[in-house]
Amino acid sequence: MKKDGHVHSPYCPHGSKDSFEEYIQKAVSLGFEEITFTEHAPLPKGFIDTTPTKDSAMDMDQLESYFDDLDRLKTKYEGRIKINIGLEVDYIEGYEEEIRNFLNVIGERLDDSILSVHFLKFNNRYDCIDYSPEEFEKIAKRYGGVDEVYKKYFGTLMRSITSDLGPFKPKRIGHITLIRKFHHKFPATHEFKNDVENVLNTIKKYNYEIDYNGAGTSKPLCREPYPPDWAAEKAMQLGILLVYGSDAHHRKELGQGREIMKFLQTGLTQE
């Protein structure tokens, strides 16, 4: 496991202000040979961030500076560590055309990216499902229960995989069980294994990768990777590429979770 394929940056408005070089030097010290910066892409044109702090993604006017900074660092660290320019792109139901147009404009600048679901649409309202346990509780009440939120999440995740977002659509699907971030406080009535397996089968059909994400291991109400062991094992059986991602929003979070992520330790992972 020599690559971290999901790392944030000082351009993240809800992260730390650790510099790119602090992230890079930490990655080198951990023995990584490759790192992908996947900052939260600007939200689709016309979409209004519904989080209380409205800090889910970088502004559009920061994007060129983000690319320029990473272009310079790719040259500076050449031969020491491979640096990929990437984005974590939000799939938002109803904004497929705007996302596709955005990717068509900037796609040639990207080396490697992730497509993730954070926002769900319900009765013409959008909710961010991983903002906080308090917000998740409010969402569950509006939906009529935790199970209903899970059903909507996996339905939206399927839409993200099958939607035509153009030739620059990311080929790696982000933290496919993010909905379980608060499951120790707000458990569903079952594990939604059929839904997860349907997602994995569809990812296989489209020949996409999954983000094998360690961030959940450090969340006190989650304490497991995204996806958990049984789903990671199923992905391996299907021949889906697992790409480790720390989802670091601070340099100290690089490498998080890898010590308990089974398929990184057994040598079964394909990265």
From TrEMBL:
Domain PHP: 4-213
A GO BP entry: L-histidine biosynthetic process
Signal sequence, renumbered to the chain: none
Superkingdom to which the source organism belongs: Bacteria
Amino-acid biosynthesis keyword on record: yes
InterPro entries cross-referenced by the UniProt entry: Histidinol_P_phosphatase_HisJ (IPR010140), PHP_dom (IPR004013), Pol/histidinol_Pase-like (IPR016195)
Key words, A-Z: Amino-acid biosynthesis, Histidine biosynthesis, Hydrolase
Enzyme class: hydrolase
Catalyzed reaction equations: L-histidinol phosphate + H2O = L-histidinol + phosphate
Cellular component terms per the entry's GO annotation: cytoplasm
UniProt pathway annotation: Amino-acid biosynthesis; L-histidine biosynthesis; L-histidine from 5-phospho-alpha-D-ribose 1-diphosphate: step 8/9
Pfam families cross-referenced by the UniProt entry: PHP (PF02811)
EC number: 3.1.3.15
Family: Belongs to the PHP hydrolase family. HisK subfamily.
NCBIfam families for this protein: hisJ_fam (TIGR01856), PRK08123.1 (NF005996)
Name of protein: Histidinol-phosphatase
UniProt source species: Bacillus methanolicus PB1
